[in-house]
Design brief:
single chain, alpha+beta, Beta-Lactamase, Heat Shock Protein 90, five-stranded antiparallel beta sheet, five-stranded mixed beta sheet, 10 helices, 14 strands, about 20% strand, disordered C terminus, histidine kinase, membrane
Length: about 475
């Protein structure tokens, strides 16, 4: 691919180059037009002189003894010869040259010369000439008939006049073009001044100052100011959420780490074997809680990052749910858990991020198994024209209705039927809520009529396509 190192790097330079190219193109067109009309004007001016001289020559024809003769009009011919070399020729009705240069080219159509002067271009004695021919009927001649008078003039004076007029007009066009480009440069520089002022305002700001940019700017720059303020607003929201998350994470980690430290201290001083074993088991449980909390904190940060950075793609929700279900059931440890999977179609497509969706579904199943103490879980995927739903139904106690909103907020520990829960991080369903928001969906809870508790994830269908409802 060719590189254009000569192309200006600044907006002023690029705009001014474009203006200069437009002005230069217009100036070239005007110069060509001016040259054409200068040639036409000089042609008309000299044709009038040439026609006048030809008419005077024709008027000075006379007949003497039945023979055509000419008394050359010296004044008329000398007027033309002041600028160029002049030639003439007189031909009688018999076609004989009675005066002038016999080899001077005549008109191609003699009939038109009888109506008035007829002009033509040609060459004579190696030079370009302009000829004018006129006919005069000589009744006294023997025989009577039309005599043709041809006067030729070289074109040096015409060309000189054309050049003089063209040069004057070209000089004016050049001056106007330079003035236009200079004025455009000043106008562009003045028009770009608000951008430089905005740049100075932003550069002088403290990194922690995320207030919107407020500056009196032309309406054409309002869109740019709006985009900058929108970016600053999103950045402020991201930083606020990050600061809140860090503060919450520090608060949540402080308690289990302190408990872990205390348990290690007690374990190191315990001498009774039975109590030593109990304290060791408690230490293992605390370590497990710390590991789970750390993992969920990292998963929550990962989900937030992927929400804004990773584009969505077509995902088979039925296949993904089967895979996640197969990986999650071993979390039930030694409990005998009954699992069922149902789908309205072999393939159910949505627009999504597979990694975030796996994390969300894993958290729903994790809550049902470890916190809901469920031993019967049914995962259902259903596709309609309006939406795609994934429902996880279990036979656990579920979450009380008055705590459904709180369950979706980070670090809210809600146990079965709304009881206070002392284990877990309270991040599981918050991760699910973040994933569904990123996918344009929603999270709902329900108590099915047949009993148990259900978590319903609702997605918009991918590209409006719904697979055929073929049960599996």
């Amino acid at each position: 691919m060719p590189r254009f190192d000569w192309f200006p790097k600044t907006l002023l330079g690029r705009t001014l180059l474009f203006v200069a190219l437009v002005v230069a193109s217009g100036a070239a067109a005007l110069a060509g037009i001016a040259r054409y009309y200068a040639g036409v004007a000089s042609e008309r001016a000299y044709d009038q002189l040439l026609a006048g001289a030809t008419i005077q020559v024709a008027e000075n024809l006379y007949v003497q003894g039945g023979v055509l003769a000419l008394n050359p009009p010296v004044a008329a011919l000398s007027t033309l010869s002041r600028y160029d070399v002049v030639y003439y020729k007189v031909v009688d009705a018999r076609g004989l040259v009675v005066a002038g240069y016999g080899d001077l080219p005549g008109p191609a159509n003699t009939m038109s010369a009888r109506q008035g002067p007829t002009f033509a271009n040609g060459r004579y004695q190696g030079e370009r000439v302009r000829t004018a021919t006129i006919g005069r009927y000589m009744s006294d001649a023997r025989p009577p008939g039309w005599a043709l008078v041809t006067v030729a003039q070289t074109t040096h004076a015409r060309q000189q006049l054309t050049n003089d007029m063209s040069f004057k007009v070209w000089t004016l066009i050049l001056l106007m073009s330079v003035l236009a480009i200079g004025a455009s440069g000043l106008a562009i520089r003045r028009g770009l001044r608000p951008l430089a002022q905005i740049g100075q305002i932003i550069a002088a700001r403290d990194p922690a100052d995320l207030r919107p940019v407020a500056h009196d700017t032309p309406s054409e720059i309002n869109a740019l100011i709006g985009a900058i303020n929108g970016l600053i607003g999103r950045l402020a929201e991201r930083m606020t959420a990050m600061q809140r998350f860090i503060a919450d994470a520090a608060h949540q980690m402080r308690t289990p780490i302190a408990r872990l430290d205390a348990q290690i201290e007690l374990l190191s001083t315990e001498s009774d074997p039975a109590r030593h074993a109990a304290r060791l088991e408690a230490l293992r449980a605390t370590c497990s809680d710390v590991g789970r909390l750390t993992g969920q904190l990292l998963n929550h940060a990962m989900v937030i990052h992927r929400t804004e950075m990773v584009p969505l793609q077509r995902v088979d929700l039925a296949k993904l749910a089967r895979e996640v279900l197969g990986r999650t059931i071993p979390l039930a440890d030694e409990r005998d858990v009954k699992v069922a999977f149902e789908s309205s179609a072999p393939q159910v497509w949505i627009a999504g991020d597979p990694v975030s969706l796996q994390e969300a579904l894993s958290n729903v199943l994790h809550n049902a198994l470890l916190h809901g103490k469920a031993d019967d879980i049914v995962v259902t995927v259903n596709a309609t024209q309006e939406a795609v739903t994934l429902t996880v139904t279990d036979n656990g106690g579920g979450i009380a209705r008055e705590h459904w909103d709180a369950a979706l907020r980070p670090f809210e520990r809600i146990g079965q039927e709304g009881a206070e829960r002392t284990t877990g991080s309270g991040l599981g369903l918050a991760i699910v809520q973040a994933v569904m928001k990123a996918h344009g969906g929603r999270v709902n809870f329900a108590f099915p009529a047949e009993g148990g508790f259900a978590v319903v994830l609702t997605f918009p269908p991918a590209d409006g396509e719904t697979p055929p409802a073929t049960p599996v």
